[in-house]
Every structure is written in C-alpha cells, then in structure tokens.
Amino acid sequence: MAYTPLLQQLMDALRCLPGVGPKSAQRMAFHLLERNREGAMALAGALEAAVSGVRHCERCRMFTDKPLCEICASARRDASVLCVVETPVDVYAIESATGFRGRYFVLMGHLSPLDGIGPQELGLGQLEACLAEGGIAELILATNPTVEGEATAYYVAELARAHGIRTTRIAHGVPLGGELEFVDGGTLSHAFSGRQDVH
Amino acid sequence: MRATERITLAPAYVLHQHDWRESSRVVEIFSREYGRLGLVARGARRASSPWRAMLRPFQPLLLSWVGGGELGTLTGVEAAGAPCVLGGQALLGGFYMNELLLRFLSRQDPHPGLFGHYADGLGRLMQETSVALRVFEKRLLAAAGYGLILEREAVTGQPVESGALYRYELERGPVRVREVSAHGLYVTGDMLLALAGEDLRQREQVLTARRLLRAVLDRHLEGRPLKTRAVMREFGKMGV
Predict the structure, then answer these.
(1) Between 20 and 30 A from B162 (CA), which of A66, B17, B78, B171?
(2) Is the model's pLDDT at B3 over the cut of 80?
(3) Å between B190 CA and nearest CA of chain A
(4) Residue A2 pLDDT more than 90?
C-alpha cells in the first residue's frame, strides 16, 4: 500500500538526517504521528527557529544567534590567545575538557587539495584579517591529526608567522590509559618526535 | 579482478579517501601488484576502529581485501613501515603526486615499477621537493605510455648535445634550432640530458624542466586542470 503524500513527504524529509534510511524514517514518522504529536510540533518549531535564527559569529564563525558568539562577546576571555579548530563541535570538546580561556576561530572544514578546497574556498581571508587586526600574542593550532589537517595547520602557521604571531600546536601522542603495545606506529612516532623534558 | 578474489597483505598506499555513509570510508589505493583500486573500509570512521590511524596517505601499508565489482571491501590493514612524514611544501607535493596517479592511472592497471618510483619520490620530497616532483612526473609519463624523448633529436635522430638549443615540440620531441623565436618551448641540451639522467642540479634546469613537464602533462590532462596545482598556486599567492 502506498503512503499518503504527506506521510511520504515527512519520511523523505527525515532522511536528510545522518544515518536515517527508509526504515528508520518510517519508524520515526509513525512514532511522531501515533504517539507524540505534541513532540512533533515542538520539533517542527525548534527546527524552524534554529534554521532561521542560528548563524555564524562574525568574528570566529561559531554557531550563535547573535552577531557575536558568547565567547567572543565575553570580556572575561583572553583575546590575546586564539585557538584555531576545524568545526564547531571541536570548540565544545575543548571547552568541556580543558581550562582554555582564550578565543577561537572555526575554519568550518579543512584544506583538501585533492578536492580543490584551498585557502580561498575555506575563506581563510577572514582569519588573516583577524590576525592583521593585532592584539593576538599566541595562535594555537588544534586542527585534526589527518594529512588534510596537517596541510591546514601549515597554511595557518605561515599566515601567523607573516604577522609575527607565536604559533603553537596541540600535542599528538599516546592516549591516556592506553598501552604502547596497542598504539599504532604513526601515533607512536609522533609521540616520540614530540617528546618533552621531564620537569 | 574476478568477483570473489581475495587479496592478502598487498603492499599499497592510500591516495585519497572520502567519507561514505555513517561510519565508513571509500579509500582510493595504489597497490604494487594490482594498481589503483577503490575499496570500502567499513566502520573506518568509528572511534574504536584500529584502521583509523593507519589509513592515511603517505603511510606504507599492507592491505587485504575481497574483490568484487567496482569497489572491493577492505578486510585488513597493517603498517608496512614508518610513515613518510611530510610537512610544508613537501606535503603539498605529496598531494600533487597522489592527484597525478589518480588522473593518469586507470583502475586495476598494475604498474609495479611506478609503485617503487612513488615510494622513492615520497622519500625524496622532504629534501628537494621540486626536483623530486620533476623526476616523478617524468617517470609517471613513461609508465603511462607518454614517455618523453630527451636524448635524441626528433627529426634526425641525432644525439642531443649539451651545448645546443632545442625547441621542444610536444608531438615529436626536441628539434635543434639556432636561436629562440617568438613561439614555442625552448630548452637547452643540458636540461634535456640532466632530466634524462634524473640529475637536475641547477635552478635554471629545474625551472625549465618544470615548464616542459607541465606542458606535456597538460596536453594529456585534456583541459581538466589539476586541483592540487591550483591550491599550491594559492599558497604561493599568500606568500606561503
């Protein structure tokens, strides 16, 4: 039996979510319609409000519903330290796990030369403008440890160097609670080359 | 490759990869015995996947997979040595070499010799990026069946002389001339012989070799420019 057009439309729309195939879309649609119409209305409202209201922070490109995100607008954050990350999720990860009190810049991706994504496609001009404004003493590179993240870090580091800004990079190495025996060779070699003096 | 073929621990490199579905990846590999192939790495993006750290470009690998249709399925990944650690310009050069392989080799067309040249080229990138790239370009063209004529004149078949001047005609090869005129690609005998012997030493030779190889590569790229080259140019523009 064919679905009614509205039901079909709902299921097709749900499939834009990651990991949702035809079967899960059907389950979600039926659940909302059979058991939780109130929840469905709330979901529809929240989706609409978020999509029309959430934008990128003018300074760091983080998601926000004001012109500047909470971190950029806060007077208690240290404006002289800038941490460069690939995605908004990375900001939440660093915020919840570390005591970092500086500001961020979200690249919204990474350089991928083989896909034709270069500095221009990534909009790195905005980061350069931010560095040119002055007032930044240290730039922390927190791009992902992939070859594309590496290329991105190289580019950003060169930009920072051109503006005379000290650049640091978060450490790569053995995960806590891990055993050396089970750590892959690449990570171990990074950990070795990045070894530090014991204080 | 037959539909059910099972390959065990074949030497290979990852050239490129992209995310596929929720937790998998499609990796484009270059293996010594089987050439370029596409493989699905199921679950490779999960945090618990032991493949995640190893499946990266420039890392010598031993891969196992099951063949079938357009894409095979990856079944095992082992490191075959220390990764080739590239940084800065050398890293961009590595991406460029990968794109050349993706563009010039068709899938499932073995090039064991070129595999060795690729590994060798990656190793040299950190020392002299630009020379390493020229040598790799020359070897790649030869492997793809577009080898350059460098040691003999096109028309007469005479040996190329180091002191002489040549106009390089892309369809034919070097033609000896007395002087440079308005059009054409002019090269010295020195450079042709240095490129033939893979012994580019002077800066001038490296630059001319680059011009020549670029013209030849472009001819075979059929109007679809290399993406990495455009990105490298942008790096150059920003003074990086």
Answers:
(1) B171
(2) no
(3) 34
(4) no
